[in-house]
Amino acid sequence: MTKIFSVLVLLSVCTLPACTYIDSIFNKDASSQNTDQNTLNQGYAKFEKESMTKSLNKYQKYYAEGEIVANDNYRFMVPTNFSAVDIVVHEGTSSDGDLMTAHSLDGMALVSIQKYQGKRGPEIGCDSVVEYQKNNPEVKFLKKPYFVKTSTGSGCELFLHYTKNDGLQYVSYSFTEQFDSMHMYEVSATLQYPASYENYILFITEFFKNTYSPEVQLILKHMNKEYAKGEKILKKKEYNVRLN
Questions:
Q1: pTM of this prediction?
Q2: pLDDT tier at 3 (50, 70, 90 boundaries)?
């Protein structure tokens, strides 16, 4: 099975047990593809839950499908055929913010959500992020990056193709929103199967549709370019980048 990776932030903040686990997701025996998928998923889910609950540290918690992620920043039910690991960061640790990453049991989809303290200024630094990616030889733009600022917050959208030094290739969609409180949320996804920009939007929207968080629900609306009545759009732009 071809490996897939999430956005770089996922690997940059995970601790050793979670990193080892994330790596193992994408290295399952290819021969298992010939096994009945439902049986495989059930068996793997049981094995994963038993092994993960033993290996995670005190800041991490494992959630199986149907369970509620007990994080008030993005409280939601894990969808069918998915499992999730939530990393709750406390004061005094080196990481910045809470991070949840979930993967489908067949290894075809990976999604994450992170909340952290905003430190990029009132427009979340979309200009500088895009400029950095333009100069990154590993990155190709699949869609022009998009920035929007409304009376409730500002968002930055990226849809990128990565080619790592080891030849690994993957596509990542991310949408980052900064609220007036300077709190920032980022949702992102990587899909193994061929998927368009619209597929990524639909996938993330469906995944988080039952989230008990007004901030996340607002992010989903802004990601879909939906705005509440009376919500003012103060600024928006597409960046002029070379598409590949």
A1: 0.78
A2: very low
